UniProtKB/TrEMBL annotation, chain A:
<feature type="transmembrane region" description="Helical">
    <location>
        <begin position="234"/>
        <end position="254"/>
    </location>
</feature>
<feature type="domain" description="ABC transmembrane type-1">
    <location>
        <begin position="95"/>
        <end position="313"/>
    </location>
</feature>
<dbReference type="Pfam" id="PF00528">
    <property type="entry name" value="BPD_transp_1"/>
</dbReference>
<keyword id="KW-1133">Transmembrane helix</keyword>
<feature type="transmembrane region" description="Helical">
    <location>
        <begin position="132"/>
        <end position="153"/>
    </location>
</feature>
<feature type="transmembrane region" description="Helical">
    <location>
        <begin position="297"/>
        <end position="316"/>
    </location>
</feature>
<feature type="transmembrane region" description="Helical">
    <location>
        <begin position="37"/>
        <end position="58"/>
    </location>
</feature>
<feature type="transmembrane region" description="Helical">
    <location>
        <begin position="183"/>
        <end position="204"/>
    </location>
</feature>
<keyword id="KW-0812">Transmembrane</keyword>
UniProtKB/TrEMBL annotation, chain B:
<comment type="similarity">
    <text>Belongs to the binding-protein-dependent transport system permease family.</text>
</comment>
<protein>
    <submittedName>
        <fullName>Binding-protein-dependent transport system inner membrane component</fullName>
    </submittedName>
</protein>
<feature type="transmembrane region" description="Helical">
    <location>
        <begin position="117"/>
        <end position="137"/>
    </location>
</feature>
<keyword id="KW-1003">Cell membrane</keyword>
<dbReference type="GO" id="GO:0005886">
    <property type="term" value="C:plasma membrane"/>
</dbReference>
<keyword id="KW-0813">Transport</keyword>
<dbReference type="GO" id="GO:0055085">
    <property type="term" value="P:transmembrane transport"/>
</dbReference>
<feature type="transmembrane region" description="Helical">
    <location>
        <begin position="192"/>
        <end position="214"/>
    </location>
</feature>
<keyword id="KW-0812">Transmembrane</keyword>
Amino acid sequence: MTVVDKIAPDEAKAGARTPPRPTLRHRLSRWDVKVSPYLYIAPFFVVFGIVGLFPLLYTAYVSLFSWEAGDDDPTFIGLDNFKELFADTQFWNALENTVSIFLLSSVPQLIIAVLLAALLSARIRGATGWRVGVLLPYAASLVALGIIFANLFGPKYGLVNGLLQTIGLDPVDWQAGRFSSHVAIAIMVNWRWTGYNALIVLAAMQAIPKELHEAALIDGAGTARRFFSITLPLLKPTLIFVTITSTIGGLQIFTEPKLFDAMPGSNNGGSSNQFQTVTLYLYQTAFENYELGYASAIAWVLFVIIVLIALVNFFLTGRLTAVKKK
Amino acid sequence: MTTIHKGLKRGVSALGKPRRATYVVLTIFVLGSLFPFYWSFLVASRDSGMLTERVPPFLPGGNFFANAARVFDTVPFWKALGNSLIVSGTVTLTTVLFSALAGFAFAKLRFRGRNGLFVFIVITLAVPTQLGIIPLFMAMSEFGWAGGLQSVIVPNLVTAFGVFWMRQYTLDAVPYELIEAARVDGCSMIRIFWNVCLPAVRPAAAILAMFTFMTSWNDFLWPLVVLDAGNPTVQLALEKLQSGYYVDYSLVLAGTTLATIPILIVFLLLGRQIVAGIMQGAVKG
């Protein structure tokens, strides 16, 4: 078998010299070589089967039923859950909120991350120290963060409103307004992830050959020119990678809006659902209202949306790298 | 001319040599990163009355330990800490071990279906598993695991990212010659893994361990679904502190400070490695 040959050619040769009848030890060893790889990769497939694949498929099955928690005899209703969902204004509202928060967070986050990476890529003293400092928010727990920011953005005594008033502006009821709540939640997201993304961009920046910058410098290109004509184009694949990961995370945002509520513990996402996201709506439907069938339909629609956006990103990446190769 | 010459001599980076402005901007950014932690400690070390003051104090008060003690009276915080340690510790150990095993197999062993199975794992990276929480919750209830720590541990025993990460590292870190030599000496596969592969991939395993521990420690949605209030993790205990009609912020933020200090210490101790890990992952991925 190639299995043995590839791994231990010496042993195969040695086997040819010894008598043809394989010893027990030898047979055990062959068996070991054949079976071990499957044993080593088995844990992932078992766990993924149980917690990834099965739930995804079973979610599709449950979504076809009117299925309440504790219900022993759920009724099959076909695609009615999906029909209802597409006519559900609260769902569309949640989807809009999710996309709005996602855009408000990922766009400024990427821009700041690139600029920050540019600063960090200069030959600064204590480079590692600065990098650790920038990454600090990544260590915070989302729950602690949600609580702290809910306090900072509090309507009456929040520090942010205090500052606004100090410089002569009107205080904002951050939780009550739709746009203002999205801004506050986006700031929370950005605070945690900007430094992390900056480091990823920084790694890509450092991989850019120095000769390119040197050549441009000799041609008389200034700092800004080199940044826009060399650094930025070569960062494209990394930026798309960062966009994809933050899209997948951003579309599932849950903890921040849940903890930002002025009525702590609520799953409404504000008094008029002004910052309820899709995952928060999914959680409310399943574990507060116990409508498991309907919640499963929400989960599947969200899954399809995420896959579609990931695919769009994927093809975009392919096109951009194809352009680069030319 | 001289600037060009200087630039070439110093080695050129994206923005040239650092100016004072670079340090100023970075300092502002790092202070901004630190501020919410500091604010949380500030409120926790005083009483909630400070929040009604127009100009809040800038230095901590002396009530931190009193507020922290109230956290332990209000929610089962010791139990939550213990639970979080058990869950994150177990998940970290198994994730690193199983990922290293699978990474070894994918990187260095030949077997039928290897490439196909690996591509499958890479694809699953894009599947958001948290969308399956409803059937997973039903399954956990069925097993009678809901409320128990195993319901939080078992789904996280190993991750696609971990397998991917360890495979990438093992490819370069373990020479075939070493494996062959060990086989000639009559080593079993598992001994080769343990004595040859594992020591060689220790740096990658350490980075994976840190990330897994942090992710697991901070996990919220799934524990919220499957655990109950009497048997919480730290994150659930924090959320419980905050939910109520009247929010006592000195109490709540004492809780967030307590929960953040240990992970902040770990982060500051291992910061260099964590940064290196993120940057290394970015280049390879």
